[in-house]
Write a structure and sequence with these properties.
The protein is of the alpha+beta class. The chain is built from eight helices and eleven strands. The strands form three sheets. Strands 1, 2, 3, 4, 10 and 11 form a six-stranded antiparallel beta sheet that branches. Strands 6-8-7 form a three-stranded antiparallel beta sheet. The chain has a two-stranded antiparallel sheet with strand order 5-9.
C-alpha cells in the first residue's frame, strides 16, 4: 500500500531573526566604507519605492555606497559623540540620521552628487493612506475608458455606475479623492485604474561631511542644532 503523503515528516524550524551578528556586520561595513570614500551624505526620502531606489543605486555602485536600515545601528557605526566617532566630525552626521533617512558614501564631486539628488524623482501610484495631492472628480456621464466587464468592480468601489447600451455610465458626479486627505482603499484603486500617479519618490540631501568640512542642506538647521541634538 502506498505511503500516505500525510505521513511525511515536516520540518518546523523557525527562521532566525537578524541578531547581534547581523548588526555587527552592518556596523563594520559602514566603518570600512567611511574609510574608503571621501564624502558622506545623509539623505531623507519620501514615498520610497524599492525597485526605483535599487535602479538608482545600481547607477552609482562603481563610485558610491548606500546604507538604509536602522538609524540606531548606523549611528553606532559612525559614533554618537566626539568621544566615539570613527573620524573627526562624523558624530554630527550621526545626529542627523532620523526618521526616513539613509547614508550615501561616495568619491563623486559634491556638485555632481547635489545635481543627481536634486534632479532625481519618479512618479508612481499613491498607496492607501497617502495624502491626495489634488481633488479628483468624475462627472456624470459615460466612462468610455472602462469596459463593460468592469462595471461590477466599479460599483464595489462605491462609484454610482450602470451599464447603458454596453457603456459604463456615471449616474451622478463622483469625487474620487479630496486634496490633502488620506486615500481610502477604494480611492487608491480608482486612481490606479485612471492611470493617475500622485506619489513622487524623491530623495533630499540633509548634510555632507568630508575630512575638510561639514555642510548642512536642510533649511532651518545650523551646526548648533546638530551639536545640541
Amino acid at each position: 500500500m502506498p505511503k500516505s503523503k500525510r505521513d511525511r515528516p515536516i520540518t518546523l524550524s523557525k527562521t532566525k531573526k537578524k541578531g547581534k551578528e547581523h548588526k555587527e556586520s552592518i556596523v563594520n561595513s559602514i566603518r570600512d566604507a567611511a574609510e574608503k570614500y571621501s564624502s558622506i551624505f545623509v539623505f531623507s526620502f519620501e514615498n520610497m519605492r524599492n525597485l526605483k531606489f535599487k535602479e538608482f543605486r545600481e547607477q552609482l555602485k562603481t563610485t558610491s555606497r548606500f546604507f538604509l536600515g536602522s538609524n540606531k545601528v548606523m549611528q553606532v557605526a559612525l559614533g554618537r559623540s566626539a568621544s566615539d566617532e570613527i573620524r573627526v566630525g562624523l558624530h554630527k552626521v550621526s545626529k542627523l540620521l532620523r526618521g526616513d533617512s539613509g547614508l550615501f558614501l561616495t568619491n563623486m564631486p559634491r556638485e555632481e552628487v547635489e545635481s543627481l539628488f536634486n534632479k532625481y524623482e519618479d512618479y508612481d501610484f499613491a498607496r492607501i493612506g497617502s495624502t491626495a495631492s489634488e481633488k479628483v472628480e468624475l462627472l456624470e456621464g459615460p466612462l468610455e475608458q472602462f469596459t463593460h466587464e468592469m462595471e461590477p468592480f466599479l460599483r464595489k468601489q462605491g462609484m454610482p455606475v450602470r451599464l447603458n447600451k454596453g457603456v459604463v455610465e456615471l449616474i451622478s458626479d463622483f469625487v474620487v479623492c479630496e486634496e490633502g486627505k488620506p486615500l481610502s482603499p477604494e480611492s487608491a484603486r480608482i486612481l490606479r485604474l485612471l492611470g493617475m500617479k500622485m506619489a513622487t519618490f524623491k530623495l533630499h540631501l540633509i548634510c555632507r561631511w568630508s575630512p575638510e568640512d561639514f555642510e548642512l542642506y536642510k533649511e532651518g538647521l545650523d551646526e548648533s542644532d546638530v551639536e545640541s541634538t
